[in-house]
Design brief:
Layout lengths: L1 H12 L8 H4 L64 E3 L2 E4 L1 E2 L8 H5 L1 E2 L1 H13 L3 E2 L2 H10 L8 E8 L2 H13 L5 E4 L1 H7 L11 H9 L3 E4 L12 H19 L5 E3 L7 H9 L4 E7 L2 E3 L6 E5 L6 H9 L5
Parallel strand pairs: 2-6, 2-12, 3-4, 5-6, 6-7, 7-8, 9-10, 10-12
Antiparallel strand pairs: 1-11
Helix pairs in contact: 4-6, 9-10
The site of zinc ion has 5 residues, from strand 6.
Length: 325
């Protein structure tokens, strides 16, 4: 299911039917089954340069521009995450999960259709949230609050997340958010954003220029991996390549550590959490439905999925529902 979604995503993103990247990358088969209890000790190897590339040889791609060599400058000083103070905090904070904010072209793939919200409906969402007294916050503030109790959150906090870094994030979501004095959290597939500027296959994705403008206006930029593979079951080297590669690209392009991650297709296991935590990520969002967030699950933050048919009444129902743990 998750693998299929990933292929859909790629197919939906290009003009050519693209059997791109993902299949070619498959790393050495994971030997051990990734039981969530496994290996908590990972920290040392993460300072290494990401030489361990399971090289993504893009054989079938028409434009063979998928450069495996990371354009990574180890610029930034690693900002350690908020140190958890050990206090168990539970708070109900909805984290909405949007994908496309646009009307799909005729004949679009079902994935594209199902994950597209029309811009006028999105505007109505923002009107509704404003009228109901919600305040948009950055995901990293929610995580920091859960871990340490600071910063204080506003009375009705909400996080608006946008997966995949589509161009309509820039053209449609961003101006609508600004018109409402709201902020959003955008999860970027960093290789695709890099390609977006000059490879038509990636024309559906926002460019770094656009993302820089959004970040400068207060939008939060997070990692959605380098190229959107399923991360569960992958080995350490591959995960380090995904974590450091996406992190350092965002640092180089945006000028700040991303801190936050959305698992591609919601796929993760304990090793994924450990690697990204070691790369100084503070937390991550899943595709699990819910609104009750707690300090023991900073890398398993729940979201509410917004689909093409989530109009305002459906959004209101999602927010009013008493989601269990
Ligand atoms: Zn995605």
């Amino acid at each position: 299911m998750a693998a299929v979604m990933s292929v859909w995503l790629l197919a939906a993103c290009g003009t050519t039917p693209t059997p791109i990247i993902t299949p070619a990358i498959s790393p050495p088969a994971p030997t051990a089954s990734p039981t969530p209890t496994a290996s908590p000790t990972l920290t040392p190897s993460l300072t290494a340069t990401p030489t361990s590339t399971p090289t993504p040889t893009p054989t079938p791609t028409p434009t063979a521009t998928v450069t495996p060599t990371p354009t990574i400058t180890p610029t930034s000083t690693p900002t350690p995450g908020p140190t958890p103070d050990g206090v168990l905090r539970r708070i109900r904070v909805p984290v909405l999960m949007y994908h496309y904010i646009s009307t799909p072209p005729a004949g679009a793939h079902p994935y594209r259709v199902g994950n597209s919200l029309a811009p006028d409906v999105f505007n109505a969402h923002l009107d509704y949230l404003q009228q109901e007294g919600y305040t948009t916050i950055q995901l990293k503030d929610l995580i920091s609050y859960l871990a340490t109790g600071a910063p204080q959150l506003p009375p009705k906090p909400i996080v608006l997340t946008f997966d995949d870094g589509y161009a309509d994030s820039y053209f449609n979501a961003f101006p609508a958010l600004q018109a409402h004095n709201m902020i959003g959290t955008f999860f970027i597939i960093t290789d695709f954003a890099t390609q977006a500027a000059d490879d038509p296959t990636y024309a559906d994705y926002a460019t770094w220029d656009q993302l820089r403008e959004m970040a400068a206006a207060g939008m939060e930029i997070g990692s959605h991996s380098r190229n959107h593979p399923d991360l569960a079951g992958k080995d350490l080297d591959y995960l380090v390549w995904q974590a450091l590669g996406s992190k350092e690209t965002i640092e180089a392009e945006i000028g700040a550590h991303p801190h936050i991650l959305a698992y591609p297709s919601g796929s993760y296991d304990q090793l994924v959490i450990d690697v990204f935590r070691s790369a100084h990520f503070w937390g991550a969002v899943t595709t699990q439905q819910g609104t009750l967030q707690d300090s023991d699950h900073l890398f398993e933050i729940k979201r509410l999925r917004i689909s093409h048919d989530t109009a305002v009444p459906q959004l209101a129902a999602l927010l009013a529902y008493d989601w269990p743990d």
